[in-house]
Amino acid sequence: VALGILPLGSVNVLARELGIPRRMDRAWKVLAAGRVRSIDLGKITYGPPNERRMRYFTQLAGAGLDARAVQRVTRAQKRIWGPLSYVFAGFRVAAENSPPVRVEMEGRPAIEGACVIFGNGRFYGGPFAVLKRARIDDGWLDVCVFQKGGYWNLLNYLQGVLRRTHTRFEDVSYAKTRKARVTANGKIPIEVDGEMLGFLPAEIELIPLGLKVMVPA
Question: In 10 A of CB 69, how many CB atoms?
């Protein structure tokens, strides 16, 4: 079974990644044409040992500052502000004290930061290529760790993302992996595909070409 996508969300990142038109009539024509492509599928297992749960995701997962922002955004705010609602929420939580997120990847030293984003594709929050080296069918998860919190660091990271220079920053780590474990000393939230999911700890992996989607010719 192939997944057909109609871009009715507030940001529609996966549709953007796959080149699906935002106009509904054009998106419907993509489904009618029936061209199918296989892409990688993310898998996350999360929660305390006695309450483990599993969820698949298509585009991205995040823990720390970005998930705390997602947690704060209401449906009403998304309707009014769209993608900007996440930016506003990000600044609200940036100054809050929160334990760092720890990421362990295969064959690499552990990394700690204020925010970690795992990407199957390039885009985050709309047209922002936070995971600019990601490819949705390459069998790898791209990982970007923003190491510092606070307003000024968030502003610096945002301008770096807009210029696509953030991966050059000394306090930003970028890597590729097939599996990762994410932990924190505290109740740190997780989001997948822009929706609140639960809380750390979590294990994240990729299922190569695990999902069929309908795409433009």
Answer: 25
Q: What is the pTM of this model?
A: 0.90
Q: What would the pLDDT profile of 37-47 be if each residue is shown by its tens digit?
A: 999 999 999 99
Please, what is the Cα angle at 18 between 80 and 7, to 5 degrees? 30
Strands in the chain per DSSP E: 36-46, 53-57, 60-64, 101-105, 111-113, 115-119, 141-146, 172-177, 179-183, 189-192, 195-199, 202-214
Q: Considering only CA atoms, which of 66, 126, 116 is closest in space to residue 94?
A: 66
Nearest to 206 by CA among 19, 61, 93, 101: 61
Burial class (CB in 10 A: 0-12, 13-18, 19+), 142: buried
Contact 44, 61 (CB under 8 A): yes
Neighbouring C-beta atoms of residue 74, cutoff 10 Å = 10
Which residue in this structure is represented by tokens 């822009």? 194
Angle 151-163/84-94 helices, nearest 10 degrees? 150
